[in-house]
Write a structure and sequence with these properties.
Layout lengths: L7 E7 L2 E7 L9 E3 L6 H11 L1 H4 L4 E5 L5 H5 L10 E5 L30 E3 L20 E3 L20 E3 L20 E3 L20 E3 L20 E3 L20 E3 L7 E2 L1 H4 L4 E2 L7 E2 L14 E4 L6 E4 L4 E4 L5 E4 L8 E8 L13 E2 L3 E5 L9 E4 L11 E8 L4 E3 L7 E4 L4 E8 L1 E6 L4 E4 L7 E4 L8 E8 L7 E3 L2 E6 L9 E6 L14 E6 L6 E3 L7 E2 L3 E6 L4 E7 L5 H11 L1 E11 L5 E8 L3 H8 L3 E2 L7 E4 L2 E8 L11 E2 L2 E6 L6 E5 L11 E9 L8 H4 L9 E9 L14 E4 L3 E4 H11 L3 H7 L4 H7 L4 H12 L5 H11 L3 H24 L8 H8 L1
Helix pairs in contact: 8-11, 9-12, 12-13
InterPro entries: DEATH-like_dom_sf, Death_dom, Leu-rich_rpt, Leu-rich_rpt_typical-subtyp, LRR-SigEffector_domain, LRR_dom_sf, LRR_R13L4/SHOC2-like, ZU5_dom
Organism: Cyanoderma ruficeps
Protein name: P53-induced death domain protein 1
Length: 863
């Protein structure tokens, strides 16, 4: 046997450092391959190789470079010289941002001469910033595989069909709105992936792709698909889920080789009978999913469901056995199919502010909506009722998924959620929308199986045969993160199962090596596998307890029980405590506090806790009406954490406010909600004509079970959980001081009333809007201009004296404030009235005069 030549060490000078690369002696590199995308400075290495060993480099047939490399543009100029190149990979996604999401590469175009690579058959430009397809690609005569997924393409060139030899094309995760008619000329195309774009219509020419075996059009905006798809006789798998389809052609059922048809999560009101008869069709998540009636059926038998629309302020509706569609003012939709309720049923609904003592978010959860309560609780429907809930899109959609969570009365659980925030329920309770880490799950049989992450397919869990006697359900979640300055780490892996028994055989876990680490440069003494409990409180180094195997890109180890697993590469020896702190920081949000005063009424103060990246847009939106100090320094808070605002140094607020606890305003921080309150402040001290320079301070309240020391180690003493302080300045009150009016109550104790002090507080907030409010209250111009002499307080008290006997006077006052554009004052009056009702009810209850139940309550209970 002939002995192969020994590889030589090629020293490459790059910048100030010295790099090593291996090359075979002779005229070409090893195996004609050059994989440099695993190196942070791969383009630098390529340029140095091309300079010093050009004769060998131009023979390369397979080349991989990272488009996250800052020297990519320089490297592109040398590519047209590689005339033997068969495969070129210029992918991004080799770096992650601060949220752990893959960063797109720098590639925006290709050199025109790249079209001269006549041998190129495989081109991968995924995870880049292409807005148009480089024209040179259309001149590649041998191109068979083209990947441009995760770019920003809006359209494809009209002559795209020139790539007649192409067999695989992927443009998923772009912004394509239409396809050129020439796509039908790709006669050899076998796999076409156009998922997660913005396609609204397909050209009829798609039906000319006679060799196509898999077509993925999921996640678009398609309302219909052309009948010509029935011509794709080679098609095996057709993915149409998560579109807006209202109809599908029955001719799809005639495709001879079709083995999967996914129509889930569309708007199909009827499914053709021929398609429903297929054993491999998936239609869950559509409004009706009923068999389409035959043409001979009596059209009068097809009944349109009644649609109900409700304005804000309404809180109930009636459902009959005929079913209905309901749309609330807040954007929530319901679908009650015929027969869901056997008898007429009154449905009550209301929107609640999430309370952290009740709404328990899990680690890494993000709240996206308020709580929806539906009554009566526990009533069983005969068919599933669909609920659509609006929500704010999460910032990290790649690693998070949106689910609807429901409360049973004792605990919260996640519902199976279709496409958008839509769920199917058989009974009513409490519902909210959250964003959680993407969850992949499977049933593990005795024969074993494979489970991998959809966030990072390189993360795999392998269950060998005999791993369990009885099938059990397993769930996998992945949290992406970026490495610290002094270490790097893999994605954070969480595994759980529905059984308390450990597996009978070890389960193999594959994790990608940390960024920048490969099997070539790995120092095993620096690699640590950490294991933690469910809450992430304790992190143990189990490296010495498992058998570690390595490939060029992955680490593989075996376990028998599930929890958190984390792969670290660091020079530190004891990292359990460090890992705990890093894990806690993953759950923290960087926020700023703002305190602004209304320009026309400085005693009206707006307080808000704003995520750092939203501060500038929020201030820009408010700058016309408010002024105030610069935002506070950046602090860190948990999702769902409670905090308080306290006014100090001569400034106070109404202590009877429902949200006032021990003299401090109570807030709850949710990263996707406003965390804002507008309140009226005053000074209880005698100003003597001087302005009052006070302040508002923010403090932590109820916090999660654990909190990093660096997040709470602030201002010592009784306010050790102090977060920030901002100044508040009150000018002289002016003519409102010194006014004396007789005792006054508006309304009555049972329905709630306003006292003289309440009216005084409201008067001080009216400001320049007083004339408009006076007109809305029914006063004449003459009264406003002459009798009241433009004195706001006198105006309000004069009106109150005239209407004190009117049982609807408080409602009129609230309506006047709303009509005059002062919703903030109307809300404050509502809060005062509600507090009065509560105090009245409590006093009645204490003296035993409360009725056991009202007629209405009895009726609801009987229902």
């Amino acid at each position: 046997m002939q002995k192969m030549a020994e590889p030589l060490e090629l020293r490459i000078e790059c910048g100030e450092g010295t790099l090593g690369a291996r090359a075979l002696t002779g005229s070409c590199l090893a195996d004609n391959r050059l994989n440099l995308d695993v190196y942070p400075d791969g383009c630098c290495r390529f340029l140095q190789l091309f300079k010093e060993r050009q004769g060998e480099v131009v023979q390369v047939e397979f080349l991989r470079l990272s488009s996250n490399d800052c020297l990519l543009d320089s490297a592109l100029g040398s590519l047209p010289h590689l005339r033997h190149l068969k495969s070129l990979v210029l992918k991004g996604g080799h770096a992650r941002d601060e949220f752990g999401s893959y960063q797109h590469g720098f590639l925006t175009s290709l050199p025109p001469d790249l079209g001269n690579l006549r041998c190129l058959t495989h081109l991968d430009l995924s995870f880049n910033r292409l807005s148009i397809l480089p024209s040179c690609i259309l001149h590649l005569p041998s191109l068979r595989v083209l990947l441009v997924s995760h770019n920003s393409l809006v359209t494809l060139p009209e002559n795209f069909g020139r790539l007649s030899k192409m067999t695989f094309f992927s443009a998923m995760k772009n912004q394509l709105k239409e396809l050129p008619e020439s796509i039908g000329e790709l006669s050899m195309l076998q796999d076409l992936d156009l998922s997660e774009n913005a396609l609204e219509l397909l050209p009829e020419e798609v039906g000319n792709l006679h060799n196509c075996t898999e077509l993925d059009l999921s996640g678009n905006r398609l309302l219909s698909i052309p009948d010509s798809l029935a011509n794709l006789k080679s098609l095996r798998r057709l993915h149409l889920h998560s579109n807006l389809l209202v109809t599908v052609p029955a001719s799809l059922a005639s495709l001879p080789n079709l083995s999967r048809l996914d129509l889930q999560n569309n708007c199909l009101r009827a499914i053709p009978a021929e398609i429903q008869a297929l054993p491999f069709v998936h239609v869950r998540g559509n409004p009706l999913g009923e068999t389409e009636p035959s043409p001979q059926a009596d059209k009068s038998s097809v009944r349109r469901l009644k649609r109900l629309f409700f304005a804000s302020g309404e809180g109930s509706f009636t459902v009959t056995s005929e079913g209905c569609r309901v749309v609330l003012a807040c954007g929530i939709h319901f679908y009650f199919p015929p027969g869901a309720a056997s008898d007429p049923l009154q449905i009550y609904f209301r929107s609640l502010t999430p309370d952290p003592q009740w709404v328990k978010l899990r680690h890494h959860d993000v709240l996206l909506s308020r709580v929806l309560e539906l009554q009566p609780h526990g009533v069983q429907f005969q068919q599933e009722v669909q609920i659509w809930m609006p929500y704010i899109s999460p910032q990290t959609p790649h690693q998070h998924e949106v689910v609807i969570r429901t409360f049973s009365g004792q605990s919260w659980s996640d519902l199976k959620t279709r496409c958008v925030a839509r769920c199917f329920v058989l009974h009513f309770s409490w519902f909210l929308v959250v964003s959680r880490l993407v969850q992949n799950e499977c049933k593990v049989p005795a024969e074993g199986t494979l489970l991998f992450s959809s966030v990072d397919p390189n993360i795999k869990v392998i269950f060998p045969p005999g791993v369990t006697k009885e099938p059990r359900s397993v769930k996998l979640q992945v949290c992406m993160l970026s490495g610290e300055l002094w270490c790097s780490s893999s994605p954070l892996l969480y595994l759980s199962q529905d059984s308390t028994v450990d597996f009978l055989k070890p389960v193999r876990i594959q994790l990608p090596l940390p960024p920048g680490v490969t099997g070539l440069n790995l120092d095993r003494s620096r690699l640590h596998i950490l294991h933690s409990d469910l809450e992430g409180q304790t992190w143990n180094d189990i490296t010495s307890e498992v058998v570690l195997e390595f490939t060029h890109l992955y680490a593989v180890f075996e376990v028998t029980h599930f929890s958190w697993y984390w792969l670290w590469y660091t020079t530190k020896t004891y990292i359990g405590g460090i890992a705990k702190k890093v894990y806690e920081r993953l759950r923290l949000y960087q926020v700023n506090f703002i305190a602004l005063q209304r320009k026309r009424d400085p005693e009206q103060v707006l307080l808000q806790c704003v995520p750092k990246h939203k501060v500038d847009p929020v201030l820009k939106k408010l700058q016309d009406r408010y002024r105030g100090p610069e935002p506070s320094d950046m602090v860190e808070m948990f999702e769902g954490e409670q905090f308080f605002a306290a006014f100090e140094r001569g400034i106070s607020i109404d202590m009877d406010r429902p949200d006032c606890v021990d003299g401090r305003l109570s807030f709850i921080f949710y990263s996707h909600l406003k965390n804002m309150k507008e309140i009226y402040v005053t000074s209880p001290v005698d100003r003597k004509g001087q302005a009052v320079k006070g302040q508002v301070s923010f403090y932590r309240g109820a916090v999660p079970d654990s909190i990093p020391e660096d997040a709470s180690r602030r201002r010592k003493g009784p306010d050790s959980l102090w977060l920030a302080t901002l100044p508040i300045k009150l000018p002289n009150l002016g003519p409102l001081n010194g006014f004396s009016f007789p005792p006054l109550n508006l309304g009555n104790a049972e329905t709630g009333y306003l006292t003289q002090a309440n009216l005084l507080s409201i008067a001080r907030r009216v400001g320049a809007d007083w004339q408009s409010i006076g007109l809305s209250l029914g006063l004449t111009y003459q009264q406003i201009e002459e009798d009241l002499n433009k004195q706001i307080l006198d105006m309000l008290f004069s009106w109150a004296q005239q209407n004190s006997e009117d049982p609807d006077c408080v409602s009129k006052l609230i309506a006047a404030m709303k009509e005059s554009g002062r919703q903030d004052i109307a809300d404050e009056i509502d809060a005062i009235i509600e507090l009065g009702r509560q105090k009245y009810s409590e006093s009645i209850r204490r003296v035993g005069l409360e009725q056991e139940s009202s007629t209405e309550d009895s009726a609801i209970a009987m229902t």
